[in-house]
Amino acid sequence: MQPHERIGEAIAVANKDGRTGLVPFITAGYPDPATFGASLQAIADVGDVVELGVPFSDPMADGMTIQRSSFAAIENGVTLSWIFDQLDSLKGNVNAPLVMMSYLNPLLAFGYDNLASRARESGVCAFIVPDLPYEESAEIAAALDAEGVGLIQLVTPATPDDRLKMLANASRGFLYAVTITGITGGDTGLPVDLAAYLDKVSAASSLPVCAGFGIRTADDVVNVGKHAAGAIVGSALVEVLERGEDPAAWLRQLR
Hints:
The chain is α/β, with parallel strands linked by helices. The chain is 46% helix and 15% strand.
């Protein structure tokens, strides 16, 4: 099985168990690099897939919570190389497939071939790169594909139908359905027309569809799960870590 195929399998297992796949997001190394390994293991024991954010100085798709966590992690010396080294030390102890979310610059600086091999070695199954247009993704996609590592595509409510199908066909692991035309961390609730949008995206994709942005409560997860295979929970979980609370306990109540 290729690394990116582990993602879809994990979400499918959750769905067969009657659950919405749960995809928690954390900023790597936040709030304290020293506790990152323990936090990741605890979160991976509850989540079906875990999304790891690479700290970046200008996270344009993210709201204040993740911006704040990213800045703090950078101040504490967290880098892409550091994250890979930490994952190497945790190999065999993380019970969920890992997806890495990064803006393009750190990946470009690391080198695509090196990135792909380090990802496979350390257990990263796919990447999400929110500032990389599909039309400019061929080089990194080829490098990742050579190692069986996926490049997950994002769609939004504004994505035209023909482009939606193209991105669904190109994605590996799952298809990321952004629920809003905006940034992460909003507290205005999910859109009223979410069901129709997620139904359309799910119909276009042979991969599991995971919805993200604005998912904060167990009710949100239930509502998303009626129309998509998985729910991505980011800013709300980062806030739990920020408050020093138990992330695994918080995630369990989402189920």
